[in-house]
Specification:
Blueprint (H helix, E strand, L loop, with lengths): L1 E4 L5 E4 L3 E6 L5 E7 L2 E2 L9 H4 L6 E4 L5 E2 L2 E5 L2 E5 L8 E2 L9 E2 L4 E8 L2 E14 L3 E10 L5 E3 L2 E7 L3 E10 L9 E2 L16 E17 L4 E8 L4 E6 L5 E7 L5 H7 L6 E3 L4 E12 L8
Antiparallel strand pairs: 1-2, 2-3, 3-4, 4-5, 6-16, 7-10, 8-9, 11-12, 12-13, 13-14, 14-24, 15-23, 16-22, 17-18, 17-19, 19-20, 19-21, 20-24, 21-22
Length: about 300
């Protein structure tokens, strides 16, 4: 892997086949992902669009939680979590670091320190991007508890992949909606994604009980395929196919929606409790295969 440039506020890195453009000052967002010259992410013409609408472009890190948490005051141990709503449904969504400036280290390493703003624990988030060989993108994320007490936490990456795309998620169970605390259920009907297909609009759930590979993405028009593998203490893939957006979100993460409430109630799918000085880690691998876009399911 080589770092091609750091011009214009972007870090450009990758191989001859896989190229990444990262915006450190805008949450270390993956602004562009090109494979064999094809743009795979929903990327705006003007990067200022990220500040106007941060949640529907590129690919961004979610920490110290993913998906939705309940806005307002929630007691945890001897502290209060007091989060402001930042989404139209009144929830606190996707953490605190998706817009903040990150520090650039070397060879695709980025970090940010945060805490406060209603989250009563200081923490540090790390992002390491690598192209292994020529065709595998490795996304390594870490969340370190910098406080002197246990901290609940979660990690994820939120890419928007351009349509047309066929998606398979090898999950045996699904939290069927991300807008409430519905429990997981066996996959069935439109929520059984074990065979690759184009997704209808309106899907928004979290898949678990993942086999390997966790997901399989196919762009038949590009004759291109991405095999997705995920490693972490808990593994979930959120799939979102909203109405009126020309992309789908395929989001590896460490918990389901409303993860703080789930942790407090002892439900499955909650945030992870991170001890002082300890790390939560999530590793996502996308292996891009040429000549395997496929037009059939499976």
């Amino acid at each position: 892997m080589t770092v091609h440039s750091r011009a214009g506020g972007q870090v450009v890195l990758g191989s001859d086949a896989v190229e990444l453009h990262v915006l450190p000052q805008l949450g270390a967002r993956l602004h562009r992902l090109r494979v064999d010259g094809h743009d795979l992410l929903r990327t705006p013409d003007d990067a200022r669009a990220y500040t106007d609408e941060p949640f529907h472009w590129g690919a961004f890190v979610m920490a110290p939680w993913c998906n939705r948490l309940t806005a307002g005051r929630t007691p945890f141990g001897g502290r209060w979590v007091d989060l402001k709503a930042n989404f139209r449904d009144g929830s606190a969504i996707h953490g605190q670091v998706y817009e903040r400036p990150w520090t650039v280290h070397t060879e695709g390493d980025f970090s940010v320190s945060a805490g406060g703003d209603g989250w009563p624990w200081p923490y540090r988030v790390g992002l390491r991007l690598r192209v292994v060989g020529k065709r595998t993108l490795l996304i390594e994320q870490s969340l370190t508890n910098m406080s002197d007490e246990p901290m609940p936490g979660g990690l994820g990456i939120h890419p928007w992949f351009r349509r047309p795309i066929r998606v398979a998620v090898n999950g045996g169970a699904v939290y069927p909606t991300n807008i409430d605390r519905a429990p997981a259920e066996p996959v069935s009907g439109r929520l059984d994604l074990r065979q690759a297909r184009e997704l209808e609009e309106g899907i928004d759930g979290a898949w678990t009980e993942l086999a390997e590979p966790a997901a399989d993405l196919r762009w038949p028009q590009l004759d291109l395929r991405a095999v997705v593998r995920v490693a972490g203490p808990q593994r979930f893939i959120v799939v979102a196919s909203p109405t009126g957006v020309d992309a789908v979100a395929i989001e590896p993460q460490t918990h389901a929606a409303f993860g703080l409430d789930r942790l407090l109630s002892g439900e499955r799918g909650g945030l992870t409790l991170i001890e002082p000085g300890e790390q939560l880690q999530l590793i996502t691998e996308l292996e891009f295969i040429r000549g395997a876009g496929g037009s059939r399911g499976g």
